[in-house]
């Protein structure tokens, strides 16, 4: 009797639960739609540091998370990084493993593909 009751109530309980497909399979740390990582926009003035980084980056040949174009001014679009020594928007550390993001340097079409 208990099995019958459970088998009848379970589908009703599942049907009454809201399902939000927009949040399904999304990484809360890496927001590709808004080009952010941990809430930090992935464009702007970037300082390379040995410690105290906002995130760790590994340069790869393929399989990147984001394509980076080095620019000399106005890094306003996704993937445009201006490397600076002072007053950065965020700090990175280059690593060989245990990275937060994988990047590839490009001359055109930066951003997330």
Q: Which range best describes the helical content: under 10%, 10-25%, 25-40%, 40-55%, 55-70% or over 70%?
A: 10-25%
Order of helices and strands: HEEEEEEEEE
Count the DSSP helices: 1
Biggest sheet architecture: 6 strands, parallel, barrel
Describe this protein with a few key phrases:
113 residues, alpha/beta, 6-stranded parallel barrel, 3-stranded antiparallel sheet
Q: What layout of secondary structure does this protein have?
A:
Layout: H1 2-16, E1 30-31, E2 36-37, E3 40-41, E4 44-48, E5 55-59, E6 66-70, E7 80-83, E8 90-94, E9 101-105
Parallel strand pairs: 4-7, 4-8, 5-8, 5-9, 6-7, 6-9
Antiparallel strand pairs: 1-2, 2-3
Can I get a quick summary?
The chain has one helix at 2-16, and strands spanning 30-31, 36-37, 40-41, 44-48, 55-59, 66-70, 80-83, 90-94, 101-105.
Q: How does this model look, in words?
A:
The chain is α/β, with parallel strands linked by helices and 113 residues long. It has a domain of 62 residues. It has 1 helix and 9 strands; from the N terminus they run αβββββββββ. The strands form 2 sheets. The protein has a 6-stranded parallel beta barrel with strand order 4-7-6-9-5-8. It is globular, with a radius of gyration of 21 Å. About 6% of the residues have low confidence.
